Amino acid sequence: AQTVTQSQPEMSVQEAETVTLSCTYDTSESDYYLFWYKQPPSRQMILVIRQEAYKQQNATENRFSVNFQKAAKSFSLKISDSQLGDAAMYFCAYRSAYGTQAGTALIFGKGTTLSVSS
Amino acid sequence: KAGVTQTPRYLIKTRGQQVTLSCSPISGHRSVSWYQQTPGQGLQFLFEYFSETQRNKGNFPGRFSGRQFSNSRSEMNVSTLELGDSALYLCASHSWGNTGELFFGEGSRLTVL
C-alpha cells in the first residue's frame, strides 16, 4: 500500500522569505500523480500544484514550485516570497495512475501547518 | 460557476443515532468522492461515486455508506454513530479521469456526543 509522510508538523516563515515543506512517499508503482493541497482556516481545500510522475520537469505555479525526486520518492514544496495569505495547513497527496478502479482516491500525508509572520 | 456545496455545515448527534450528509458537485462534474478528516488519523478516503455507481471504497466499516443520484448529487450516511465518528467530512467533485483535479467543499463538521 502507498503511504505519504510529512515529517514537519509545523513550519514558520517570515513574509517575503522562502520556505520548503517536505514530503516523502512510498509506492511500488511507476506511474502516479503527486499533489500539494492547501487548507486555510476556512477549511476549503484547494489545489496548489500537481506533478505527474512521468514528467521529469518540476512543476511550477507562480510562487510555488516542487522538487520532485522520483528515485528518492521525495516531493517537496517551495514557497517563494511568502505572504500572510499562505498561512494554512498544507497536505501532500498521492494518487495512483493505474486503471479506472484506482479512481481518484487520494492518499494524504498528515499535513504541515505553515504560519507566516510579518 | 458555483463550487462544491455541502450541507449541513455543522451538526451534533448522540451515540447510536444516524446521520446523512449531502454534497452537490460542481455543475458538469459526474464524480464525487468523500473523505473523513480527524486530528488523529488525518484525511482518509471513504468512497467515490461516478454515474450513480460506487467506483472505489476506502477501509471503513459498513456503517458508512453513500449513494449518488442521477443529477450527480451525493449523500453519505453513517449509522449507529460512535464517538470516533466525530470529524470533518469533506466532499470533492471532479471530472472523471485520472488527471482530473479534485474540487473540495468546505465540509460538514460532525460532533458525536
3D architecture notes:
The complex is a heterodimer of chains A (118) and B (113). With 118 residues, chain A is an all-beta fold. Helices cover 0% and strands 51% of the residues of chain A. Chain A has strands at residues 3-5, 10-14, 19-21, 24-26, 32-39, 46-52, 60-61, 64-69, 74-79, 88-96, 107-108, 112-117. In chain A, strands 2, 5, 6, 10, 11 and 12 form a six-stranded mixed beta sheet that branches. In chain A, a hairpin with a 2-residue loop joins strand 7 (60-61) and strand 8. Chain A is globular, with a radius of gyration of 14 Å. Chain A starts with a strand and ends with a strand. Chain B has 113 residues and is mainly β. Helices cover 0% and strands 53% of the residues of chain B. Chain B has strands spanning 5-7, 10-13, 19-24, 31-38, 42-50, 53-57, 64-68, 74-78, 87-94, 103-104, 108-112. In chain B, strands 2, 4, 5, 6, 9, 10 and 11 form a seven-stranded mixed beta sheet that branches. A four-stranded antiparallel beta sheet of chain B has the order 1-3-8-7, with no helix packed on it. Chain B is globular and about 35 Å long. The N and C termini of chain B lie far apart (37 Å). At the A-B interface, strand 6, strand 10 and strand 11 of A face strand 4, strand 5 and strand 9 of B.
